[in-house]
Amino acid sequence: MEYRILGNHLIENARALLLSGLFFKSARSRRWQKRGTKILWTELREQFLGDGGHFERSPMYHEIMLNLYREVCSLLWSKRLEAPPEVVNRIQAMEDWLQDVLHPDGKFALVNDTALADLGNQTAPGDKRMIPSDGLKALSDSGYFI
Predict the structure, then answer these.
(1) Nearest partner of 63 among 94, 19, 105, judged by Cα
(2) What's the whole-number average pLDDT of the chain?
């Protein structure tokens, strides 16, 4: 577990624990699942800000983490397990934040380690960015103003 690095690394580690715990069938794997789940939900609260943005403030890392949480929830649901309602609400806030910071063509703003690589942006082609009528939006927890 990458506790010394934290950030998205710890979330990736927790996902690996959870997935391993769901894949294998033993007392040890149930502990992996429990530990991975606890870390994932804790880090979701710790690493995602009130406006839905990831605390590293990188649109690319944000999308990677959003897709990771989508994947985890989808797998849990396929196993007839549920994510807490708070998790579902936070994922929606994360989706909204990403939609807000994407350029109109659906590409990332190149800030905070974001690269030009196409990561398979998950926004649907018909999605509309939520921009107030004056054309301005403040994501003040993240420090972005659009």
Answers:
(1) 94
(2) 81
